[in-house]
């Protein structure tokens, strides 16, 4: 089975690892470190402005709590100077207001996390610019509004800045280009507008840049080509960004981003005419994941670049072309010619119909996950898939398949995919027939056939694969008894037979 980690969680964990390696903050030793009184009072004053309905900060200043403030929840002090260096109260379900004057007293702060709380009518505090020792600042999902203060450009030690998921507006201040040690910058899901400042190209140590879901416009400054350490780039859903070849000099500066391994351009509608720009990205030597979700790409794009001229880097493993308007089998011919090492391919939510070329399966021999859902492919498409010897996950749900299930399985089981396939989703189609023997698929673990047109009795002699875990045939017209073999499968964890006409076991 392919184990997929939520990408947001993965990015968070990766960022945390980077930060822990960077900060080298001395952790508190409870028996030896005494809290500095002025900083203790500052923390209590800060708490007074907050609403803590869940008592997450109940240890702060409790009368029956004799511990020093360095032992309070989310507070860490240096075991050398006793100064508060860490304030980590993210995800504490807090409300209220941020008292600026209180935090200004904590001039030795290196790590400040106030994220995932819901502060009242809060503008981005300008005083953060005076916390010159800050290495880490996370104010994501904090209900912040207003603009980023230009004083942020004074945080010369800052290595991590996360302002994702707020209501920040205005232009991105060019002073952020002064943060020469910055490695992680997330400004995604705000309301920033205008052109991207060219000074961001000064961030030579930057590894992670998220500018997605804003209202940025104009062309990308070629100075971004100086970000030679950049590994992950998110630009999606800035619909006014332009990627025209003329103003970006064909995107030649992109060739300098040799460390880039993940690019997300989701929701940018004008990529059909950005051939050179996309080609430069696709050929980056370390690129492993390219997300072109909802980019209005169509067969026209393929025809204009040619079936074989457009090449992807051999390092590319994940390609997302979902929610576009590809309609013919030319997309399969194109992918067969331009990419050979893909591990995951998402073509769901397109307009695909008709056959899939027989050589598609052999051309993408490394593919482990394929999603063709929400299209109009035919059951005979399985003929090309049967020779994908590495394929573990196949989704063709909501695709108006009308064939008999035994024929679909016959196509699949005729090739080597019957040895590798673990997860098969054919739900929400118009598939007919009854449930056939499944033991042909030696590695199959999950099968989803809900909301089809299966009918008749399930054969008493039906066999399940030895590692089978989940079967869903909800909302069909199956009848008769439930085979005893279902109860004899020790690995079976989930069996959904609802909305049929089945009786107890045979």
UniProtKB/TrEMBL annotation:
<dbReference type="InterPro" id="IPR001611">
    <property type="entry name" value="Leu-rich_rpt"/>
</dbReference>
<dbReference type="InterPro" id="IPR003591">
    <property type="entry name" value="Leu-rich_rpt_typical-subtyp"/>
</dbReference>
<keyword id="KW-1133">Transmembrane helix</keyword>
<dbReference type="Pfam" id="PF08263">
    <property type="entry name" value="LRRNT_2"/>
</dbReference>
<dbReference type="Pfam" id="PF13855">
    <property type="entry name" value="LRR_8"/>
</dbReference>
<comment type="similarity">
    <text>Belongs to the RLP family.</text>
</comment>
<keyword id="KW-0472">Membrane</keyword>
<feature type="domain" description="Leucine-rich repeat-containing N-terminal plant-type">
    <location>
        <begin position="37"/>
        <end position="78"/>
    </location>
</feature>
<keyword id="KW-0812">Transmembrane</keyword>
<keyword id="KW-0677">Repeat</keyword>
<protein>
    <recommendedName>
        <fullName>Leucine-rich repeat-containing N-terminal plant-type domain-containing protein</fullName>
    </recommendedName>
</protein>
<dbReference type="Pfam" id="PF00560">
    <property type="entry name" value="LRR_1"/>
</dbReference>
<dbReference type="GO" id="GO:0005886">
    <property type="term" value="C:plasma membrane"/>
</dbReference>
<keyword id="KW-0433">Leucine-rich repeat</keyword>
<feature type="domain" description="Disease resistance R13L4/SHOC-2-like LRR">
    <location>
        <begin position="173"/>
        <end position="407"/>
    </location>
</feature>
<dbReference type="InterPro" id="IPR013210">
    <property type="entry name" value="LRR_N_plant-typ"/>
</dbReference>
<keyword id="KW-0732">Signal</keyword>
<dbReference type="Pfam" id="PF23598">
    <property type="entry name" value="LRR_14"/>
</dbReference>
<keyword id="KW-0325">Glycoprotein</keyword>
<keyword id="KW-1003">Cell membrane</keyword>
<dbReference type="InterPro" id="IPR046956">
    <property type="entry name" value="RLP23-like"/>
</dbReference>
<dbReference type="InterPro" id="IPR032675">
    <property type="entry name" value="LRR_dom_sf"/>
</dbReference>
<feature type="signal peptide">
    <location>
        <begin position="1"/>
        <end position="30"/>
    </location>
</feature>
<dbReference type="InterPro" id="IPR055414">
    <property type="entry name" value="LRR_R13L4/SHOC2-like"/>
</dbReference>
<keyword id="KW-0675">Receptor</keyword>
